[in-house]
């Protein structure tokens, strides 16, 4: 239960950061986008993109609140069954990355994003994925 609540807090917090970007906030926005070695952004997300990610992260957070048992719910069993594996796999794949700009195995490492990704973003995704799997295995 504690791991589920911790994970839901982290995921909802990340969702709130994305919603902050939707309403024009700048906190961490530039640092969260991968760039080429020249400094050119690899991604140029629109507000709708941040909203979609924020909604997804918030839904994942709510999923883990429900999984903790703190709130009674009546979801179909297949949602809990598959969500319990799909969510952690998404974060573990993000931690592994796409081998160029994002993840532990990226080749572009010396950009500001690359350094932050190595120290913070990829480890956080790995931890989220690992905790998600632990929650499922400990049930």
Key traits:
139 residues, mainly alpha, globular
Structure explained in plain terms:
The protein has 139 residues and is an all-alpha fold. 64% of the residues lie in helices and 0% in strands. It contains 4 helices and no strands. The chain has helices at 2-22, 47-68, 77-96, 112-137. Helix 1 (2-22) packs antiparallel against helix 4 (112-137) and helix 3 packs antiparallel against helix 4 (112-137). The longest helix has 26 residues, at 112-137.
Cα separation of the termini: 9 Å
Question: How large is the count of helical segments?
Answer: 4
Mean pLDDT: 97
The overall strand count is: 0
Question: What's the order of the H and E elements?
Answer: HHHH
Helix percent reads 55-70%
Q: Radius of gyration in whole Å, from Cα?
A: 16 Å
| Beta-strand content estimate | under 5%
Structural class assignment: mainly alpha
Taken from the alpha-carbon principal axes, the silhouette is: globular
Report on the biggest sheet.
none
The residue ranges in which pLDDT falls below 50 over 5 or more consecutive positions are none
Write a brief structural summary.
This protein is an all-alpha fold and 139 residues long. It has 4 helices and no strands.
Strand and helix layout:
Blueprint (H helix, E strand, L loop, with lengths): L1 H21 L24 H22 L8 H20 L15 H26 L2
């Amino acid at each position: 239960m504690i791991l589920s609540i911790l994970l839901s807090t982290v995921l909802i917090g990340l969702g709130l950061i994305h919603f902050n970007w939707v309403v024009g906030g700048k906190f961490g926005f530039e640092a969260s986008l991968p760039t080429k070695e020249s400094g050119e952004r690899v991604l140029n997300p629109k507000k709708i993109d941040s909203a979609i990610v924020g909604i997804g992260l918030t839904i994942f957070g709510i999923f883990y609140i429900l999984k903790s048992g703190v709130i009674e719910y009546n979801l179909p069993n297949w949602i809990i069954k598959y969500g319990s594996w799909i969510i952690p796999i998404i974060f573990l794949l993000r931690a592994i990355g796409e081998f160029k700009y994002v993840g532990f195995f990226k080749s572009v490492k010396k950009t500001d994003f690359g350094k932050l990704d190595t120290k913070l973003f990829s480890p956080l995704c790995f931890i989220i994925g690992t905790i998600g799997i632990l929650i499922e295995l400990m049930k």
